[in-house]
Specification:
The chain is an alpha/beta fold and 274 residues long. 42% of the residues lie in helices and 17% in strands. It has one domain: Rossmann fold (3-Layer(aba) Sandwich). The chain has nine helices and nine strands.
């Protein structure tokens, strides 16, 4: 009994693919990752590349995107860097056309771009509010609208949005971020319903606390760290590479009957009460 299937290796040699490799296989698929120059999504982009996907690395900061592309190429992968303001639909369309011309299709979309703002509620300006909502929620909406249309037309694709532990119930000190992430969760569920019969799955990853440099400087005091870890059964922070397994699972056929889900990767934070 064959427990896997054979495929042609890089040098033309015949290799045996294990059962696990087969169901999680994304080799040759094209993944677009927004915010991929950042702390979390750069690891997700590199993880997808290590699994064999071709990667379009999209970020507002082209130099950050190029750094990720350089690493992927060093690892033997294939990738391109594109600058994008995710709140601008025309830039999404331009990026989509560039990816299509380069790779011929889009199979996977990770919407991971977005900013945060620690300004207290009564002191927050409309520009600060709009900046977070536009980069997070509007950017995810536009990514789904532009790249999702292509997936619906070809009747296949996987979209992975980035929710948050603050999507509900909300965390303190990050008002617009919490609102945006709650919106992304709802958008994910709505599109999952809309596109389920079109072969397009839409899910979200809900990271817990994986502190970035920004988090540590603007968000996490000694008192807050004690509260966070006290509410996290695993009693530690996560690391960006711990998002990769769920990303590959949601991108692959291993999750073929999963849509509209929000996958918590939070050390148990979301299941904790007292």
């Amino acid at each position: 009994m064959a427990l896997g299937r054979r495929y042609e290796g890089y040098y033309g040699e015949v290799k045996e693919m294990s059962y696990t490799e087969e169901i999680f296989d994304i080799k040759g698929q094209v993944a677009v990752v927004t915010g991929a120059g950042g702390y979390l999504c750069s690891e997700m982009a590199i993880g997808l590349a290590k699994a064999g996907a071709k990667i379009a690395v999209l970020d507002l900061r082209i130099e950050k995107a190029q750094t990720v592309v350089d690493e992927i190429i060093t690892l033997g992968g294939e990738a391109i860097a594109l600058a994008i303001d995710v709140a601008n639909k025309e830039q999404h369309i331009k990026s989509f056309n560039t990816v299509l011309n380069k790779f011929g299709t889009v199979d996977i979309l990770v919407n991971g771009a977005g900013t945060n703002c620690p300004t207290p509620f009564f002191e927050m300006s409309i520009d600060e509010w709009d900046g977070v909502i536009n980069s997070q929620l509007t950017g995810t909406f536009l990514g789904c609208q532009v790249f999702g249309k292509h997936m619906v037309e070809k009747q296949s694709g996987s979209i992975i949005n980035i929710s948050s532990a603050s999507a509900g119930p909300p965390l303190s000190k990050v008002f617009p971020y919490s609102v945006a992430k709650a919106g992304i969760k709802n958008l994910t569920q709505n599109l999952a319903r809309e596109w389920a019969r079109d072969g397009v799955r839409v899910n979200a990853i809900r990271p817990g606390f994986l502190p970035t440099k920004w988090n540590q400087e603007n968000f996490i005091t000694e008192e807050r760290e004690k509260a966070i870890l006290g509410h996290t059964p695993m009693n530690r922070y996560g690391t960006p590479d711990e998002l990769i397994g769920a990303t590959i699972w949601l991108a692959s056929n291993a999750s073929s009957f999963v849509t509209g889900a929000e996958i918590a990767i939070d050390g148990g934070f979301s299941c904790m009460t007292i």
